[in-house]
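Example 9 (inverse folding). The structure is encoded as follows.
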């Protein structure tokens, strides 16, 4: 097993963009676990499966193939052989992903796949339970967070990129709802690992938050 860098935190804290750049600078493989849960959610919506049917949703997680690929410096997510990078960022998927993520069977399937990825290479993996559940013995653990309205502002661009125009208040409410579901679920809730280093990105530039993490790892 290679070096494992675990970056956890709520949506909009900056962990995805930061994790990608940290991985690029270190020459590590980047794994977006949030995209994996979003992909399962998208497939459940497509099959018109009620997310309350935990067994059926867990079966979907087992059946589908999720893979990542860099295309012209952009990280893409594939569902089987289809590029679903934009589709998994829709507000419909965002509204349902926390419920799908709370299903123990789904988390078990995806956590096992995430562990298999770490057998191959040095990785930077970001999510909500990487340092607490997937890799409790990770070499480096970080927990990123930021003020709710700062997080909402960051999400506006994501929605505009896929043609959805949501207000700051609407996004903030969605984030608060996700935070509550993610931190209160019984299986692998969102929480800071006891030995994780907190990175509050509220007042940090992108370069500052990347540098903080890279500097810690390189020293």
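The amino acid assigned to each position is listed next.
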């Amino acid at each position: 097993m290679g070096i494992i860098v675990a970056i956890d935190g709520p949506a909009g804290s900056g962990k995805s963009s930061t994790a990608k750049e940290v991985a690029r600078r270190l020459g590590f493989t980047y794994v977006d676990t949030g995209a994996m849960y979003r992909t399962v959610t998208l497939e459940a919506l497509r099959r018109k499966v009620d997310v309350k049917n935990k067994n059926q949703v867990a079966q979907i997680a087992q059946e589908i193939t999720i893979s990542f690929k860099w295309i012209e410096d952009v990280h893409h997510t594939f569902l089987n052989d289809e590029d679903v990078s934009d589709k998994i960022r829709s507000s419909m998927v965002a509204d349902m992903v926390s419920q799908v993520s709370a299903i123990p069977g789904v988390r078990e399937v995806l956590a096992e796949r995430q562990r298999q990825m770490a057998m191959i290479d040095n990785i930077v993996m970001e999510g909500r339970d990487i340092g607490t559940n997937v890799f409790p013995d990770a070499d480096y653990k970080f927990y990123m967070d930021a003020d709710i309205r700062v997080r909402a502002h960051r999400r506006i661009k994501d929605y505009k990129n896929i043609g959805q125009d949501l207000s700051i208040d609407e996004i903030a409410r969605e984030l608060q709802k996700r935070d509550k579901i993610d931190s209160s679920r019984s299986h692998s809730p969102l929480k800071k690992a006891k030995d994780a280093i907190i990175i509050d990105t509220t007042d940090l530039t992108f370069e500052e938050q990347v540098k903080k993490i890279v500097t810690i790892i390189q020293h």
